[in-house]
Q: What sequence folds into this?
Protein backbone atom coordinates (compact mmCIF):
# COMPACT_ATOMS: atom_id res chain seq x y z
CA UNK A 1 0.00 0.00 0.00
CA UNK A 2 1.38 3.35 -0.99
CA UNK A 3 0.17 6.11 1.26
CA UNK A 4 -1.35 9.25 -0.17
CA UNK A 5 -1.36 12.73 1.32
CA UNK A 6 -4.37 13.63 3.50
CA UNK A 7 -7.34 14.70 1.38
CA UNK A 8 -7.29 18.38 2.35
CA UNK A 9 -3.59 18.49 1.43
CA UNK A 10 -4.40 16.77 -1.89
CA UNK A 11 -7.08 19.38 -2.54
CA UNK A 12 -4.65 22.18 -1.70
CA UNK A 13 -2.11 20.78 -4.18
CA UNK A 14 -4.84 20.54 -6.85
CA UNK A 15 -6.04 24.09 -6.11
CA UNK A 16 -2.51 25.53 -6.35
CA UNK A 17 -2.38 24.33 -9.95
CA UNK A 18 -4.81 27.09 -10.95
CA UNK A 19 -1.76 29.39 -10.70
CA UNK A 20 -0.07 29.99 -14.07
CA UNK A 21 3.18 28.04 -14.47
CA UNK A 22 2.52 25.74 -11.52
CA UNK A 23 2.61 22.01 -12.32
CA UNK A 24 2.16 19.01 -10.01
CA UNK A 25 5.72 19.13 -8.64
CA UNK A 26 5.65 22.85 -7.84
CA UNK A 27 2.17 22.54 -6.32
CA UNK A 28 3.43 19.76 -4.03
CA UNK A 29 6.45 21.81 -2.98
CA UNK A 30 4.29 24.89 -2.37
CA UNK A 31 1.68 23.02 -0.31
CA UNK A 32 4.24 21.34 1.93
CA UNK A 33 6.20 24.57 2.30
CA UNK A 34 3.10 26.49 3.41
CA UNK A 35 1.98 23.87 5.93
CA UNK A 36 5.44 23.05 7.25
CA UNK A 37 7.11 26.44 7.32
CA UNK A 38 4.70 29.27 6.62
CA UNK A 39 1.22 28.78 8.05
CA UNK A 40 0.82 32.55 8.66
CA UNK A 41 1.65 33.11 4.98
CA UNK A 42 -0.96 30.53 3.95
CA UNK A 43 -3.61 32.23 6.11
CA UNK A 44 -2.65 35.60 4.65
CA UNK A 45 -2.88 34.28 1.09
CA UNK A 46 -6.28 32.70 1.74
CA UNK A 47 -7.58 35.98 3.12
CA UNK A 48 -6.02 38.11 0.37
CA UNK A 49 -7.65 35.96 -2.32
CA UNK A 50 -11.06 36.23 -0.66
CA UNK A 51 -10.81 39.99 -0.14
CA UNK A 52 -9.55 40.61 -3.68
CA UNK A 53 -12.40 38.53 -5.12
CA UNK A 54 -14.87 40.50 -2.99
CA UNK A 55 -13.56 43.97 -3.69
CA UNK A 56 -12.03 44.01 -7.16
CA UNK A 57 -14.41 45.05 -9.94
CA UNK A 58 -13.96 46.60 -13.36
CA UNK A 59 -13.73 50.39 -13.71
CA UNK A 60 -16.86 51.72 -15.42
CA UNK A 61 -14.79 53.90 -17.71
CA UNK A 62 -11.60 52.01 -18.65
CA UNK A 63 -12.60 48.46 -17.72
CA UNK A 64 -9.41 47.86 -15.73
CA UNK A 65 -9.40 46.50 -12.16
CA UNK A 66 -10.66 48.90 -9.52
CA UNK A 67 -12.19 48.86 -6.07
CA UNK A 68 -14.36 51.91 -6.83
CA UNK A 69 -16.73 52.61 -9.74
CA UNK A 70 -13.98 54.73 -11.30
CA UNK A 71 -10.35 53.62 -11.01
CA UNK A 72 -7.69 55.92 -9.60
CA UNK A 73 -6.41 56.63 -13.10
CA UNK A 74 -9.77 57.51 -14.69
CA UNK A 75 -10.59 59.68 -11.68
CA UNK A 76 -7.31 61.58 -11.94
CA UNK A 77 -7.33 65.14 -13.30
CA UNK A 78 -3.57 65.02 -13.99
CA UNK A 79 -3.70 62.67 -17.00
CA UNK A 80 -4.04 63.76 -20.63
CA UNK A 81 -7.69 62.98 -21.39
CA UNK A 82 -7.06 63.47 -25.13
CA UNK A 83 -4.93 60.30 -25.37
CA UNK A 84 -6.53 56.86 -25.09
CA UNK A 85 -4.34 53.74 -25.01
CA UNK A 86 -6.08 50.46 -25.85
CA UNK A 87 -4.68 47.30 -24.23
CA UNK A 88 -5.77 43.67 -24.02
CA UNK A 89 -5.76 43.22 -20.26
CA UNK A 90 -5.31 45.01 -16.93
CA UNK A 91 -1.85 43.43 -16.69
CA UNK A 92 -0.86 45.08 -19.99
CA UNK A 93 -2.12 48.43 -18.64
CA UNK A 94 0.23 47.99 -15.68
CA UNK A 95 3.11 47.16 -18.05
CA UNK A 96 2.57 50.40 -20.03
CA UNK A 97 2.20 52.40 -16.79
CA UNK A 98 5.44 50.98 -15.44
CA UNK A 99 7.33 52.39 -18.45
CA UNK A 100 6.43 55.88 -17.15
CA UNK A 101 6.38 57.00 -20.79
CA UNK A 102 2.65 57.52 -21.16
CA UNK A 103 0.48 60.14 -19.47
CA UNK A 104 -2.91 59.54 -21.10
CA UNK A 105 -5.95 57.44 -20.33
CA UNK A 106 -6.57 53.74 -21.02
CA UNK A 107 -9.22 51.40 -22.28
CA UNK A 108 -8.89 47.71 -21.44
CA UNK A 109 -10.51 45.35 -23.95
CA UNK A 110 -11.97 42.12 -22.62
CA UNK A 111 -9.39 40.13 -24.58
CA UNK A 112 -8.82 39.99 -28.35
CA UNK A 113 -10.81 38.96 -31.41
CA UNK A 114 -10.71 35.21 -31.93
CA UNK A 115 -13.50 34.19 -34.34
CA UNK A 116 -12.69 30.47 -34.05
CA UNK A 117 -13.33 30.64 -30.30
CA UNK A 118 -16.53 32.61 -30.86
CA UNK A 119 -14.97 35.82 -29.56
CA UNK A 120 -16.17 38.69 -31.73
CA UNK A 121 -16.25 42.50 -31.43
CA UNK A 122 -19.13 42.40 -28.95
CA UNK A 123 -17.40 39.96 -26.57
CA UNK A 124 -14.32 42.18 -26.23
CA UNK A 125 -16.46 45.34 -25.73
CA UNK A 126 -15.42 47.13 -28.93
CA UNK A 127 -18.74 49.00 -28.82
CA UNK A 128 -17.75 50.44 -25.45
CA UNK A 129 -14.37 51.45 -26.87
CA UNK A 130 -16.04 53.29 -29.78
CA UNK A 131 -18.36 55.12 -27.38
CA UNK A 132 -15.43 55.98 -25.12
CA UNK A 133 -13.22 57.18 -27.99
CA UNK A 134 -15.95 59.41 -29.49
CA UNK A 135 -16.64 61.39 -26.32
CA UNK A 136 -15.31 64.53 -28.00
CA UNK A 137 -12.27 64.76 -25.71
CA UNK A 138 -10.16 61.91 -27.07
CA UNK A 139 -8.07 63.12 -30.01
CA UNK A 140 -5.81 60.09 -30.49
CA UNK A 141 -6.22 56.38 -29.81
CA UNK A 142 -2.96 54.43 -29.26
CA UNK A 143 -3.47 50.74 -30.09
CA UNK A 144 -1.25 48.70 -27.75
CA UNK A 145 -2.59 45.18 -28.24
CA UNK A 146 0.01 42.41 -28.52
CA UNK A 147 1.79 41.71 -31.80
CA UNK A 148 0.24 38.25 -32.00
CA UNK A 149 -2.11 37.24 -34.83
CA UNK A 150 -5.16 37.96 -32.64
CA UNK A 151 -3.73 41.19 -31.23
CA UNK A 152 -2.89 42.44 -34.73
CA UNK A 153 -6.34 41.52 -36.07
CA UNK A 154 -7.98 43.29 -33.14
CA UNK A 155 -5.83 46.41 -33.66
CA UNK A 156 -6.63 46.40 -37.38
CA UNK A 157 -10.37 45.97 -36.86
CA UNK A 158 -10.60 48.57 -34.07
CA UNK A 159 -8.40 50.94 -36.08
CA UNK A 160 -10.72 50.81 -39.11
CA UNK A 161 -13.80 51.51 -36.98
CA UNK A 162 -12.09 54.43 -35.21
CA UNK A 163 -10.71 55.93 -38.45
CA UNK A 164 -14.22 55.77 -39.96
CA UNK A 165 -15.34 57.99 -37.07
CA UNK A 166 -12.63 60.53 -37.80
CA UNK A 167 -10.35 59.72 -34.86
CA UNK A 168 -6.56 59.72 -35.16
CA UNK A 169 -5.28 56.20 -34.57
CA UNK A 170 -1.70 55.10 -33.87
CA UNK A 171 -0.07 51.75 -33.18
CA UNK A 172 2.86 51.20 -30.80
CA UNK A 173 6.14 50.62 -32.67
CA UNK A 174 7.60 47.30 -33.65
CA UNK A 175 11.33 46.85 -34.03
CA UNK A 176 14.45 45.77 -32.22
CA UNK A 177 14.46 45.80 -28.42
CA UNK A 178 16.49 48.50 -26.67
CA UNK A 179 20.06 47.20 -26.51
CA UNK A 180 19.12 44.56 -29.07
CA UNK A 181 21.60 43.12 -31.56
CA UNK A 182 20.75 42.30 -35.16
CA UNK A 183 22.03 38.74 -34.97
CA UNK A 184 19.96 37.96 -31.90
CA UNK A 185 16.61 39.00 -33.31
CA UNK A 186 14.29 36.86 -35.46
CA UNK A 187 14.00 37.56 -39.18
CA UNK A 188 10.38 38.73 -38.95
CA UNK A 189 11.19 41.40 -36.37
CA UNK A 190 14.25 42.55 -38.32
CA UNK A 191 12.19 42.71 -41.54
CA UNK A 192 9.58 44.88 -39.80
CA UNK A 193 12.32 47.08 -38.37
CA UNK A 194 13.62 47.66 -41.90
CA UNK A 195 10.15 48.28 -43.38
CA UNK A 196 9.14 50.61 -40.57
CA UNK A 197 12.47 52.50 -40.50
CA UNK A 198 12.25 56.15 -39.57
CA UNK A 199 14.12 59.26 -40.60
CA UNK A 200 16.91 60.38 -38.26
CA UNK B 1 1.34 60.38 -11.53
CA UNK B 2 1.93 56.70 -12.06
CA UNK B 3 -1.07 54.64 -11.15
CA UNK B 4 -0.76 51.71 -8.75
CA UNK B 5 -2.88 48.59 -8.58
CA UNK B 6 -5.89 48.71 -6.21
CA UNK B 7 -4.85 47.98 -2.64
CA UNK B 8 -6.53 44.57 -2.36
CA UNK B 9 -4.74 43.55 -5.58
CA UNK B 10 -1.46 44.86 -4.14
CA UNK B 11 -2.04 42.80 -1.00
CA UNK B 12 -2.83 39.71 -3.10
CA UNK B 13 0.47 40.15 -5.00
CA UNK B 14 2.35 40.53 -1.70
CA UNK B 15 0.62 37.46 -0.22
CA UNK B 16 1.44 35.30 -3.25
CA UNK B 17 5.12 35.89 -2.54
CA UNK B 18 4.89 33.55 0.46
CA UNK B 19 4.94 30.73 -2.14
CA UNK B 20 8.44 29.28 -2.68
CA UNK B 21 10.04 30.43 -5.95
CA UNK B 22 7.54 33.25 -6.53
CA UNK B 23 9.10 36.70 -6.96
CA UNK B 24 7.42 40.05 -7.65
CA UNK B 25 6.99 39.42 -11.41
CA UNK B 26 5.44 35.96 -10.97
CA UNK B 27 3.19 37.22 -8.18
CA UNK B 28 1.92 40.00 -10.46
CA UNK B 29 1.25 37.56 -13.30
CA UNK B 30 -0.50 35.13 -10.93
CA UNK B 31 -2.71 37.81 -9.34
CA UNK B 32 -3.85 39.23 -12.69
CA UNK B 33 -4.37 35.77 -14.12
CA UNK B 34 -6.60 34.74 -11.20
CA UNK B 35 -8.71 37.90 -11.26
CA UNK B 36 -8.95 38.17 -15.04
CA UNK B 37 -9.30 34.56 -16.10
CA UNK B 38 -9.82 32.22 -13.18
CA UNK B 39 -11.93 33.65 -10.38
CA UNK B 40 -13.38 30.18 -9.57
CA UNK B 41 -9.81 28.89 -9.24
CA UNK B 42 -8.96 31.77 -6.89
CA UNK B 43 -12.00 31.02 -4.73
CA UNK B 44 -11.08 27.33 -4.69
CA UNK B 45 -7.50 28.10 -3.65
CA UNK B 46 -8.65 30.45 -0.89
CA UNK B 47 -10.97 27.75 0.48
CA UNK B 48 -8.41 24.94 0.12
CA UNK B 49 -5.83 26.94 2.08
CA UNK B 50 -8.31 27.66 4.87
CA UNK B 51 -9.52 24.04 5.07
CA UNK B 52 -5.98 22.62 4.99
CA UNK B 53 -4.91 24.99 7.79
CA UNK B 54 -7.96 23.94 9.80
CA UNK B 55 -7.68 20.20 9.30
CA UNK B 56 -4.03 19.29 8.85
CA UNK B 57 -2.22 18.35 12.05
CA UNK B 58 0.80 16.19 12.84
CA UNK B 59 0.38 12.44 13.29
CA UNK B 60 0.95 11.50 16.94
CA UNK B 61 3.17 8.60 15.97
CA UNK B 62 5.24 9.62 12.92
CA UNK B 63 4.88 13.42 13.08
CA UNK B 64 3.90 13.65 9.38
CA UNK B 65 0.82 15.54 8.16
CA UNK B 66 -2.49 13.92 8.98
CA UNK B 67 -6.13 14.82 9.44
CA UNK B 68 -6.60 12.21 12.19
CA UNK B 69 -4.57 11.55 15.36
CA UNK B 70 -2.88 8.68 13.52
CA UNK B 71 -2.02 9.05 9.83
CA UNK B 72 -3.19 6.50 7.27
CA UNK B 73 0.29 4.99 7.16
CA UNK B 74 0.78 4.57 10.91
CA UNK B 75 -2.74 3.14 11.18
CA UNK B 76 -2.07 0.59 8.44
CA UNK B 77 -1.55 -3.07 9.36
CA UNK B 78 0.05 -3.82 6.01
CA UNK B 79 3.35 -2.04 6.63
CA UNK B 80 6.48 -3.60 8.12
CA UNK B 81 6.47 -2.23 11.67
CA UNK B 82 10.07 -3.43 12.19
CA UNK B 83 11.49 -0.84 9.77
CA UNK B 84 11.56 2.84 10.67
CA UNK B 85 12.69 5.41 8.09
CA UNK B 86 13.75 8.83 9.47
CA UNK B 87 13.24 11.84 7.20
CA UNK B 88 13.54 15.59 7.62
CA UNK B 89 10.09 16.65 6.49
CA UNK B 90 6.66 15.36 5.41
CA UNK B 91 7.62 16.22 1.82
CA UNK B 92 10.63 13.88 2.06
CA UNK B 93 8.33 11.13 3.40
CA UNK B 94 6.20 11.55 0.28
CA UNK B 95 9.31 11.37 -1.94
CA UNK B 96 10.36 8.05 -0.36
CA UNK B 97 6.79 6.70 -0.61
CA UNK B 98 6.63 7.63 -4.28
CA UNK B 99 9.62 5.39 -5.01
CA UNK B 100 7.43 2.42 -3.99
CA UNK B 101 10.62 0.74 -2.76
CA UNK B 102 9.95 0.96 0.97
CA UNK B 103 7.28 -0.83 2.96
CA UNK B 104 8.09 0.16 6.53
CA UNK B 105 7.06 2.96 8.87
CA UNK B 106 8.37 6.54 9.08
CA UNK B 107 9.41 9.13 11.59
CA UNK B 108 9.48 12.77 10.48
CA UNK B 109 11.95 14.96 12.35
CA UNK B 110 11.02 18.60 12.85
CA UNK B 111 13.94 19.67 10.66
CA UNK B 112 17.65 19.09 11.15
CA UNK B 113 20.27 19.99 13.75
CA UNK B 114 21.59 23.50 13.22
CA UNK B 115 23.40 24.67 16.37
CA UNK B 116 24.14 28.14 14.96
CA UNK B 117 20.40 28.72 14.56
CA UNK B 118 19.74 27.38 18.05
CA UNK B 119 18.18 24.17 16.70
CA UNK B 120 19.33 21.29 18.87
CA UNK B 121 18.22 17.68 19.47
CA UNK B 122 15.19 18.80 21.49
CA UNK B 123 13.88 21.17 18.80
CA UNK B 124 13.83 18.45 16.12
CA UNK B 125 12.17 15.92 18.50
CA UNK B 126 15.07 13.45 18.69
CA UNK B 127 13.75 12.33 22.11
CA UNK B 128 10.49 11.29 20.42
CA UNK B 129 12.47 9.39 17.78
CA UNK B 130 14.41 7.48 20.45
CA UNK B 131 11.19 6.58 22.26
CA UNK B 132 9.58 5.51 18.98
CA UNK B 133 12.59 3.41 17.90
CA UNK B 134 12.87 1.60 21.23
CA UNK B 135 9.26 0.34 21.29
CA UNK B 136 10.53 -3.25 20.99
CA UNK B 137 9.06 -3.72 17.50
CA UNK B 138 11.47 -1.61 15.46
CA UNK B 139 14.51 -3.68 14.48
CA UNK B 140 16.17 -1.30 11.99
CA UNK B 141 16.21 2.47 11.61
CA UNK B 142 16.91 3.78 8.09
CA UNK B 143 18.35 7.29 8.23
CA UNK B 144 17.12 9.20 5.17
CA UNK B 145 17.98 12.80 6.02
CA UNK B 146 19.47 14.89 3.23
CA UNK B 147 23.16 14.67 2.33
CA UNK B 148 23.69 18.29 3.34
CA UNK B 149 26.01 19.29 6.20
CA UNK B 150 23.03 19.60 8.58
CA UNK B 151 21.38 16.39 7.33
CA UNK B 152 24.63 14.44 7.70
CA UNK B 153 25.25 15.82 11.20
CA UNK B 154 21.70 14.92 12.21
CA UNK B 155 22.05 11.39 10.82
CA UNK B 156 25.38 10.97 12.61
CA UNK B 157 24.05 12.23 15.94
CA UNK B 158 20.81 10.24 15.79
CA UNK B 159 22.75 7.16 14.63
CA UNK B 160 25.08 7.27 17.65
CA UNK B 161 22.15 7.57 20.06
CA UNK B 162 20.29 4.68 18.41
CA UNK B 163 23.36 2.42 18.25
CA UNK B 164 23.96 3.05 21.97
CA UNK B 165 20.48 1.63 22.57
CA UNK B 166 21.32 -1.51 20.57
CA UNK B 167 19.25 -0.74 17.49
CA UNK B 168 20.47 -1.54 13.97
CA UNK B 169 20.98 1.69 12.05
CA UNK B 170 21.43 2.11 8.27
CA UNK B 171 21.90 5.15 6.03
CA UNK B 172 20.46 5.42 2.51
CA UNK B 173 23.14 5.00 -0.16
CA UNK B 174 25.11 7.76 -1.80
CA UNK B 175 26.46 7.34 -5.31
CA UNK B 176 25.76 8.04 -8.94
CA UNK B 177 22.15 8.64 -9.99
CA UNK B 178 20.41 5.90 -11.98
CA UNK B 179 21.39 6.44 -15.62
CA UNK B 180 24.15 8.77 -14.43
CA UNK B 181 27.41 9.22 -16.30
CA UNK B 182 30.78 9.59 -14.61
CA UNK B 183 31.70 12.78 -16.42
CA UNK B 184 28.44 14.48 -15.44
CA UNK B 185 28.73 13.95 -11.72
CA UNK B 186 30.66 16.11 -9.25
CA UNK B 187 33.98 14.89 -7.83
CA UNK B 188 32.62 14.54 -4.28
CA UNK B 189 29.80 12.24 -5.36
CA UNK B 190 32.13 10.15 -7.53
CA UNK B 191 34.64 9.88 -4.66
CA UNK B 192 31.89 8.63 -2.34
CA UNK B 193 30.72 6.17 -5.00
CA UNK B 194 34.25 4.74 -5.15
CA UNK B 195 34.68 4.62 -1.37
CA UNK B 196 31.28 3.03 -0.84
CA UNK B 197 31.63 0.54 -3.71
CA UNK B 198 29.86 -2.77 -3.21
CA UNK B 199 30.64 -6.34 -4.24
CA UNK B 200 28.85 -7.61 -7.35
A:
Amino acid sequence: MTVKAPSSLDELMAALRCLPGVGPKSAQRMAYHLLQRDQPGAARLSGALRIALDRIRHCDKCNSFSEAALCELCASARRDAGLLCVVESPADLLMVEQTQSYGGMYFVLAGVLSPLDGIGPKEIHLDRLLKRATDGVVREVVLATNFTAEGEATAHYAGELLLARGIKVTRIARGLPVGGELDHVDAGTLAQAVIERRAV
About this structure: Chain A touches chain B through 62 residues (CB under 8 Å). The longest strand of chain A covers residues 80-87. Chain A has a mean pLDDT of 91. The CA atoms of residues 76 and 183 of chain A lie 44 Å apart.
